[in-house]
Amino acid sequence: MNNTTPIIAIVGRQNVGKSTLLNRLAHKNLAITEDLPGTTRDRLFTTVSWLDRRLIMVDTGGLDPDLESIIGQQVNIQISLAIKEADLVLLVVDVKAGLITPDYEMADIIRRTGKPVILVANKADNLKMGQEAAEFYSLGFGEPSVISAFHGSGISDLMDRVLEELPDQPIATPEEDNSVKLALVGRTNVGKSTLLNTFMGQERSIVSNIPGTTRDAIDTPLNFNGTNVLLIDTAGIRRRGKVESGVEKYSVLRALKAVDRADIVLLVMDTEELVTAQDTHIAGYVRDTAKGIIIILNKWDLGKGQDKAEVTQTIQSRFKFLDYAPILFVSGKTGRGVDTIIPMALKVQEERNKRIPTAKVNSVVTEALSAHTPPHQGKTQLKIYYATQADTNPPSFVFFVNNPKLVHFSYERFIENRLRESFGFFGTPIRLTFKARGEKC
């Protein structure tokens, strides 16, 4: 069952501690935190897990009352778009500063969307400040969750409340479950809709030279040689003018939702502009969610004599964490190479569903142990007693060992490479879990 990971938008006026809250939830500094208004001008998202449920947390810039400011216009539009795409909104206010006019303005923006809201009273660094949070009841969102993002107090209660407020997880329909779901993702104007039209042989999506023509995700069912395929063409939202960069980031959120629904992600990139930061963000999310992936270099007809080997090396150097991903060179405009995409996707799906007998798994592991001495800590050396494939889609292996803490990342990667050398698994991540002997598989 493919469930969409809920999106939580963290909004509020400037300098209320939104980035500090995001950092606290992520357990690392993913957003710039500085005691200056307006530091976070671009949204930043990260995935967090609370009580085994994955969430996408989206940080936003602070509401800027100066609507004549170009940056202010961009930030305000980003906030509105983030709220529109969110499943839940955290409205953050500052207990130290007290209730001021921009808080009411932000509350009015959120109220008009009809989205569920949790009011978060931040910077309550002591009991007295926590009591002063009562004044924020006047915003009309009920009891505030009183926290100190900087010190970490109140965070657990807030996250418990987040899970309570979220809508129930959607259940995939049987029709979707019977098909191989392929998500076309990538930056604006890399040719996703053109590729889709070439697949279908018709103008299924409106295509123009204006970036962002596709404004909503479009699902297209396709029967390919007897196999049901669902093509998900993601939004490529961008408008011309001052707000262009802000709206561009909005499309990333929809891409993440499409990734959640997919079995395999077709990451489309432009020959003339290879790997960008946005590409690596999306690719990293694909890896984290353990989806299959194919890297598609579109507009190869515009490559101007580029060497495939050199381009491949460039892409692989930027996507070292996706060294198992096949790379296809195509042209949606001329149709060159497009006919290889769906067959490749179906092969990747076969790899995701591949199951290896336990005896063969252990044979490879034994050879790996002989070739590379396991790590040790002090006098205690890692021992792998046996391994087995526990699941498919994605392929998942469980290793029973004397002490899971002795498994170093580099040794885990070594074992993964040996499994790939022996059994393939191209186009898909594989999961390795190390358990103490006696633990349940």
Automatic annotation (TrEMBL):
Per UniProt, which keywords does this protein have?
GTP-binding, Nucleotide-binding, Repeat, Ribosome biogenesis
Q: Which SMART domains match?
A: AAA
Whether Cytoplasm counts among this entry's keywords is no
Domain EngA-type G per the UniProt entry, residue ranges: 6-170, 180-353
One GO BP: ribosome biogenesis
In terms of CDD domains, this protein maps to:
EngA1, EngA2
InterPro entries for the chain: AAA+_ATPase, G_ENGA, GTP-bd, GTPase_Der, KH_dom-like, KH_dom-like_a/b, P-loop_NTPase, Small_GTP-bd
The residues that the entry says bind GTP 2 are 186-193, 233-237, 298-301
- Fetch the Pfam families from UniProt: KH_dom-like (PF14714), MMR_HSR1 (PF01926)
What positions does the entry give for GTP 1 binding?
12-19, 59-63, 122-125
- Complexes and interactors: Associates with the 50S ribosomal subunit.
The family note in this entry says:
Belongs to the TRAFAC class TrmE-Era-EngA-EngB-Septin-like GTPase superfamily. EngA (Der) GTPase family.
Write the protein's name. Answer: GTPase Der
* Organism whose genome encodes this protein: Dehalococcoides mccartyi (strain ATCC BAA-2266 / KCTC 15142 / 195)
State which gene encodes it. der
